[in-house]
Each structure stands twice: as C-alpha cells, then as structure tokens.
Amino acid sequence: MTIRPLVILPDPKLRLVSEPVKEITDEIRKLADDMLETMYDAPGVGLAAIQIGVPLRVVTMDVSKSESEHQPLVLINPEVTWASEEKRVYEEGCLSIPEYYEEVERPDRVRFRYMNLNGEIVEQDAEALMATCVQHEIDHLNGVLFIDHLSKLKRDRVMTKFKKAAKRETSGA
Ligand code: K1U
Ligand code: ZN
Hints:
The chain is α+β, with helices and mostly antiparallel strands. The protein contains three helices and seven strands, in the order H-E-E-E-E-E-E-E-H-H. Helices cover 29% and strands 25% of the residues.
C-alpha cells in the first residue's frame, strides 16, 4: 500500500467529472488500497480517487469512531438513490482544501448504491456523518467541492487564498 500525494485546490483536476469503473481489476484493488492508506494517513473520513489524481468513480470511507477498529468501505460507481426532504447542517472539511472548515446544508439522510470490490451491488442507508460524507465524496466524482455549497463571497475568498499559496509555492517564496 502506498500513501499518494493529495491534489490540492486550485488544481483543475478537482473539477473533472470522473469516469465509471467498467471492471474490478487488480489495478482498481491497488487503487482502493492506496486510497485507504492515504485517507487514514491524512487523516480523513473519506477520499475520492480524483483527490489523488485518478479520475475514476472510486470512493473510500471510514466514519467509525474507533481508531483501533477500522471499518473501511470502498464504493465503486456510487450514486444517491434517495435523499430526505429534511436537511442537516454539518461542519465540513476537505483534504484538498486543508485547514478550511465551514457549515454546509445537505439532505439529512440518504440511500446510496455502489459496487463493492467483490463486484456485488450494495444499497445502504446513511445518516449523520456518513450521509454528509457520502454526499461530499459523490460531489468530488462530479467535480463539485463543498465550497460550491457556500456563498460566492466565501468561495471567492477561499479560492484567492489557495491561489496565492500555490503561486508562492511555485515561485519558491
Ligand atoms: O473528501 C474529503 O476531502 C475528506 C473529508 C470528508 C468529509 C469530512 C467531513 C464532512 C464531510 C466530508 C475529510 O475527511 S476532512 C477530515 C475530517 O473531517 C476528519 C479527520 C479526522 C477525523 C475526523 C474527521
Ligand atoms: Zn473533499
């Protein structure tokens, strides 16, 4: 397993719409292993493949509280099949937008469908952090970031901050 470098805002890769996985191959299994390793190392509760630069519809998640007992999930081609009318506000973060947290409103509960690494189709209900996380990760697969759910003013401020940081990094200042 390899910890891969994270793609950070304003990298345009984060705006790509990821491609569906056609077949579970050894390459996909290795990608999932590397994503879990990268997510636990960060640390994070979710990761989309595009966050390590791979434009495929693969997500890893682990919203378990215990560090000693990991409950990893690998979601291939996940989609939300139902969302509640009721909304919930949750403070979100993003491994591609380090050290920035903001409240986002999303459906409180969702049902989602995905393929697991055994090629089985699974349908599952989620609430609380898991519901927020799965929506956040599926957004990544569609090139959408949590800052897109904020006001234009807040989004522009974040973009400016990260563009400046990237410029400083490339100029070596
Ligand atoms: O997709 C990502 O960027 C990962 C992101 C997922 C997420 C977190 C919170 C709400 C919605 C989506 C993160 O994991 S950010 C880090 C984080 O929230 C966390 C890290 C360690 C322990 C608990 C949470
Ligand atoms: Zn994110």
